[in-house]
Design a protein that fits this description.
The complex is a heterodimer of chains A (about 170) and B (about 220). With about 170 residues, chain A is mainly alpha-helical. Chain A is built from 9 helices and no strands. Chain B has a domain of about 60 residues: Serine Threonine Protein Phosphatase 5, Tetratricopeptide repeat (Alpha Horseshoe). Chain B starts with a helix and ends with a helix. Classes of the chains: A mainly alpha (about 170), B mainly alpha (about 220).
C-alpha cells in the first residue's frame, strides 16, 4: 500500500508529465501564427523560399500582420519568382510603413519584372525625391529604365553612380 | 515543282563547302520557306539587369558591368569596351566580364583581340551562357575545334538544347565531317520533324557529302511541309 508521501510524489509526476505534453499542444493551438512564423524563418534561412512563403502566409492568415513578417513573406515570394504574389504584400507593408524606402524599391523592382515599368518609375522617383544621391536608388532607377527600354536614361544614371560624365571614363 | 528543286540542288552543289549556311541565305532562296525555324531565330540580347537583393549596397564593378552591357546593346561598342576594361581591372577573376568583352570585340570584327582575351581565362566551370558565348566567339574566329569542344560539353549538360546542337552540326559540316554532322542533324530532325529550315540544312550537308538522292528526298519533304 502506497504511503501518502508516495501518492503525493506520483501526483506531482503525473501533473508534470501532463504539463510537458499539454503546454506545447496549447501553445501550438493558441499561438499557431507564431509557430508558423518560427518555422517559416528557419525555412527562409535555409533558402527554402517557397515553403517559407507558405508558412508565412499561414501566419498572416492566423493574424500575425507585422512588418517583419510582411518583409519576409515579400522577400520569400520575390526569391521564389512569384512576383505577382509579392506585390500585394509589399503594398500592405507600405501601408504600415509608408516611409520604408527599401520596400518601395522592392515593389518598384517587382513592377518592372511584371512589365509595369511606369508604376516602378513612380516609386523609384519618390525615393530619389527624398534621397537624390542614394546610389542604390539610382541603380534601381537605371535598372527600371533598362527594363523599360529607356537606355539613354539608364546610361545617364549608371554614369552618375560611377561619377562619370558622358565620354569621360574615370 | 521538280524544276525549282533541281535548280536548288545544282545551286547547292556550287556552294563552297566551307561557307556557313546562314538562315538569311536560306530565306533568300526562291520562296521555298513555308514555316520558320524556332531555333534559327536570333536569341534576344536585351540586357537583363542583375536584380539581386535590393537594399544591399551595389559595388562599382557591378554597376559598371551593367553599364558595359547596356552600352554594347545600344551599339556604343567603344564605350562598352572601356567599361569592360575597368571592370576587369577591378575584378581580374571575373570570367563573365572577359567573355562579354570578347563578345563585343568579336561583334566589332576584332576577333583576334577577342581570342587573345579569352586565352587569359580558364574554361573550366563556365556557366551555360558563358560557354555558348565563348563558342560563338570561337566560331567567329574560325577556331572550330575549340568551339566544338565547348558545344559538346554543353550538350552533355543539356542534350535537349537544339540550338546548340544545330551549331555543332554546322561546325562539323564546315570542317567537312559530314557523317558526324548528319548524325547531329538526324537528332535535330527527330526532335523537330516539321522544321523546314533544318531539313534544308540537312539536305545541303547530304549534297556536300555526295548523297544527292537522299538530299533530293529531303528537299522534297521540305517543299511538302
Amino acid at each position: 500500500m502506497a504511503t501518502t508521501k508516495t501518492r503525493q510524489y506520483l501526483t506531482y509526476a503525473v501533473m508534470t508529465l501532463g504539463l510537458t505534453v499539454l503546454i506545447p499542444i496549447m501553445y501550438h493551438t493558441i499561438r499557431q501564427a507564431q509557430v508558423y512564423s518560427f518555422h517559416a524563418d528557419r525555412m527562409f534561412e535555409e533558402g527554402q523560399f517557397e515553403e517559407a512563403a507558405k508558412l508565412y502566409s499561414a501566419a498572416l492568415i492566423g493574424g500575425l500582420d507585422t512588418p517583419i513578417l510582411l518583409r519576409r513573406l515579400g522577400d520569400a515570394y520575390l526569391s521564389s519568382g512569384k512576383f505577382a504574389m509579392a506585390v500585394p504584400v509589399f503594398i500592405r507593408l507600405l501601408q504600415i510603413e509608408p516611409d520604408n524606402q527599401v520596400a518601395m524599391l522592392k515593389l518598384a523592382k517587382l513592377y518592372s519584372l511584371l512589365n509595369r515599368t511606369d508604376e516602378a518609375l513612380v516609386l523609384v522617383e519618390r525615393v530619389l525625391h527624398d534621397h537624390p544621391d542614394w546610389r542604390i536608388a539610382l541603380i534601381a532607377r537605371a535598372r527600371v529604365f533598362t527594363m523599360a527600354s529607356k537606355f539613354e536614361e539608364a546610361i545617364r544614371d549608371y554614369r552618375t553612380v560611377l561619377h562619370e560624365k558622358k565620354g569621360e571614363i574615370k | 515543282m521538280r524544276f525549282p528543286l533541281i535548280i536548288l540542288v545544282v545551286l547547292a552543289g556550287f556552294f563552297p563547302q566551307e561557307t556557313p549556311l546562314e538562315a538569311a541565305e536560306l530565306a533568300a532562296m526562291p520562296k521555298l520557306a513555308t514555316s520558320q525555324s524556332a531555333i534559327l531565330q536570333p536569341a534576344s540580347k536585351i540586357p537583363q539587369p542583375d536584380l539581386s537583393a535590393i537594399g544591399e549596397d551595389i559595388q562599382d564593378w557591378q554597376a559598371r558591368l551593367e553599364l558595359a552591357r547596356l552600352l554594347s546593346y545600344v551599339k556604343r561598342y567603344d564605350e562598352s569596351l572601356e567599361q569592360y576594361r575597368k571592370v576587369i581591372k577591378e575584378k581580374p577573376a571575373l570570367k563573365e566580364a572577359y567573355i562579354e568583352m570578347a563578345s563585343v570585340l568579336s561583334w566589332t570584327g576584332r576577333t583576334d583581340e577577342a581570342l587573345a582575351l579569352l586565352r587569359k581565362i580558364s574554361q573550366q566551370g563556365l556557366k551555360k551562357n558563358e560557354r555558348l558565348a565563348l563558342a560563338d566567339i570561337f566560331i567567329d574566329g574560325k577556331d572550330y575545334p575549340a568551339a566544338e569542344a565547348l558545344l559538346l560539353e554543353e550538350l552533355q549538360f543539356s542534350p535537349e538544347d537544339d540550338r546548340t546542337r544545330l551549331k555543332l552540326a554546322e561546325i562539323l559540316s564546315w570542317t567537312k565531317r559530314y557523317d558526324d554532322s548528319l548524325k547531329e542533324y538526324t537528332i535535330l530532325l527527330r526532335n523537330r520533324p516539321d522544321d523546314v529550315q533544318i531539313r534544308r540544312k540537312y539536305a545541303f550537308v547530304l549534297i556536300w557529302s555526295g548523297k544527292r538522292e537522299q538530299a533530293v528526298q529531303e528537299l522534297r519533304k521540305s517543299l511538302k511541309e
